[in-house]
Amino acid sequence: MGSHANLIVGLTGGMGCGKSTAAAxxxxxxxxxxxxxxxxxxxxxxxxxxxxxxRARFGGSVFAAGGTVRRDLLAEKVxxxxxxxxxxxxxxxxxxxxxxxxxFAVGHGQAFVVEVPLLFEKGLENWFDFTLCVxxxxxxxxxxxxxxxxxxxxxQQRLAKQLPLARKCELADYVLLNDGTPGFLREQVNALADRxxxxxxxxxxxxxxxxx
Length: 212
Hints:
This protein has 9 helices and 5 strands; from the N terminus they run βαβααααββαααβα. By secondary structure, it is an alpha/beta fold. It has a 5-stranded parallel β-sheet, sandwiched between helices.
């Protein structure tokens, strides 16, 4: 990696495949971790403009008694309604990309790992020097989602909105396999971190310019 340019890695994969675990291992290797889901959750909790837009669109049906957005109820509303989902993504993603720009702008020769569940679905490849996909076999994926409290029906709805894992693996520059122990995944991350930190990105970095 050059002495002045940031290295910006996009990390994706299916729900329940272990993106957050892999990102944590990259953080252990000195990468600055950018959790897109956490940023979106923060927008829904603290950005008054976002909260009021959600209330105007869906009314009080997706709010807790204290006035906060119930993400589980919001998910139930949008994952069965493609129009509502597109509206919510437009509301949130423009603000998310602004957060990314702010994060990358302060880096100077820094390595970033950015968790992006819909990296390929949204055509965000141009943000990143390299893309990575964490994969696992489907039965294990569904079992992990159940352990997180996501009902099978809702899990299937969400997975239907994502590209098949096999396609994500084809599109990614590198694939991490998370069918074994955490130690097995960490070994892969360590080997890949060594490779990326000593690499030259394949093309001009477009991260500050955003998607085409």
